[in-house]
Amino acid sequence: MARIFYSLALMIISPLIVFYLYVLRGKKTPGYRAHFKQRFGFVDKSLFANNNKPLLVHCASVGEVLAATPLIKAVQKAHPKLNILITCNTPTGREQIITQFKNTVACCYLPMDFPFATARFLKRVKPQALCILETELWPNLMASSRNRNIPVLVLNARLSEKSQQGYQKVAKLTHIIMRSITVLASHNKTDAKRFIELGLEPHKSKVTGSIKFDITPTQEQLTKVTALKQLYNLEQRFIWVAGSTHPIEHEQVISAHKNLLEKQPNALLIIAPRHPEQFNKVADLLTQSTLSFSRRSNNNYNNENVLLADTLGELQYLYGAANVSFIGGSLIRRGGHNPLESAAFSVGVISGAHTYNFDHIYPELIKLKGAIVVDNADELTQQLIALNQNSKACQTLGKKAAQCVANNQGAIQKTLNIINQYLEPKP
Fold first, then answer.
1. Which one, of 102, 97, 363, 337, lies nearest residue 212 by Cα?
2. What angle do CA 184, 340, 381 make, to 5 degrees?
C-alpha cells in the first residue's frame, strides 16, 4: 500500500518534475533536455552488443562516477567480455562516464521512479544484477528488480544519522526498500547498524569499507599534473585550490584570497565551482572584485591572481598541482564533498565544519592531521597564511592526508568479491 501511495504521489507531481528538469534545469544546462525520453525508460536496445544481459551500475552524478570508476574498471579487468551499463541522473555525470570509459561501457539516464518507467526500463535492459552506489534508493526500481529476480546490490553504502531519521519517517516505504536489497556493502559497522535498524536483514549486511579510499594516482594523471605545473608556472607560487564551491562560499573564498595576497602577492587561487551553471556567476564575482583572473577554458592564462576552473573532469589534476586544497560545501550546510581526491595526491585539506556527508572519512583524516577544520572565511585566511609561511607544515599536512588514504584501502577487492557472486556464469 505504501508503494501505491508513493507512486500516486509521484504521478500527481510528475508535471512539476518534468517542468523542473526540462524547462528550468534545461534552460540553465541544455544537457538536461538531451536524451529526455530515457527519463521514462525508453532505452535503445542497440546499447548492448549481442543482446547480452549487462551489469547495471547506477551512479547519481559526477562524485559517484569518480568514486565508482576504479571499481568498475576492476570489474572490466576481471570480466573483459561483460557488458556494463552505467546510469546517472545528470548531464555532468553522463559526460564523466564518457570521459572515464569512452566506448567500453554503455550509458544512459536512470528513469524517474514511476512504476511504468522502471518496468519498461528493466524489461528492455534485462540486467543480470543492479548495483547502486551509496544511497540512491528508489522504491519502485528496487521493488521491480526484486520482483524480476534481479539481485540488488547496494555498494559503498553510507547512512548518516540525519538520513536515517528521514527514512524512519516513511517507515513502510523504507521497509519495501530494505526488503528489496539482496546485499548491502557498507562503509563501517555504524552505517551497517543504521540500515539494520531500518529493517535490513542482518545477514544481508557486509562491511567492506569505502571504495573512495582506493584511489592511487596513475602515471598518466601524474604526467598531467606536471604539465599543469609547467603551464601555469606553479612551482614558483603558493597555490591553493578551492574545489566544489557553492554560492556564498564563492564570495568567502574570494575574500580569503584577497587577504592572502596582502601577505603573499604571488599566491594563486584556482577556484572550481561545484556546478557548471555557477561558472559565469563566479566570473562575474571575480570581475567585480579587484582580482585579475583567467578562465581555464580560454587557455589564456597570464600570471593572474585567480584561475577559474570552468572545465569538467579536471579537478583531481588541479588538486595535484596545488600546495593545499579547500573542499567546498563545508562552510555552508551542504555536507561537504570528497576530500580524498586531494589527499591521494599528497595535498592537504582545509574544510569547513559541515562535512556530515563524509562522516566516514573526515574523522580519521582529521585525527591523522591530514585535514584542518575552519569555521569561516577569516579562519580560512589565517590557515592559508600560516601554511604559506611554513612550507614544511604544508608538506606534512599533505603527507598525513595521503597516509590516511593508504591506511584505508582494500574496499574495491572486497566489493568485487560480492559482485562476482551475482554475475551469471559465462556460456
1. 337
2. 135
DSSP state of 359: T
Candidates 64, 134, 249, 341; catalytic one? 64
Which DSSP symbol is given to 109? E
Confidence band, pLDDT 50/70/90 cuts, at residue 2: confident
Pairing status of strand 371-373 against strand 348-351: parallel
- pLDDT tens-place string over residues 16-31: 999 999 999 998 888 8
In sequence order, the 6+-apart residues with CB closer than 8 A to the CB of 363 are none
Share in percent of the chain as helix, strand, coil (round to 5): 55, 15, 30
Q: For residues 187 and 382, what is the distance between their CA atoms, to the nearest angstrom? A: 34
Measured between alpha carbons, how far is 330 from 67 in angstroms, rounded to an integer? Answer: 19
The DSSP element (H or E) to which 384 belongs, if any, is: helix 377-389
d(CA 350, CA 375): 10
Which residues fall within 8 angstroms of residue 366, CB to CB, at 6 or more apart? 372, 373
Report how far residue 269's alpha carbon sits from residue 100's, in angstroms, rounded to the nearest whole number.
27
The structure's pTM equals 0.82
Is residue 220 among the annotated active site residues?
no
Picking from 184, 225, 171, the residue whose alpha carbon sits closest to that of residue 422 is: 184
Residue 362 CA: distances (Å) to CA of 158, 278, 346, 351, 365? 14, 26, 16, 9, 5
CA distance 4 to 223: 54
Nearest alpha-carbon partner for 308 in 287, 328, 290, 327: 287
399-413: pLDDT as tens digits: 999 999 999 999 999
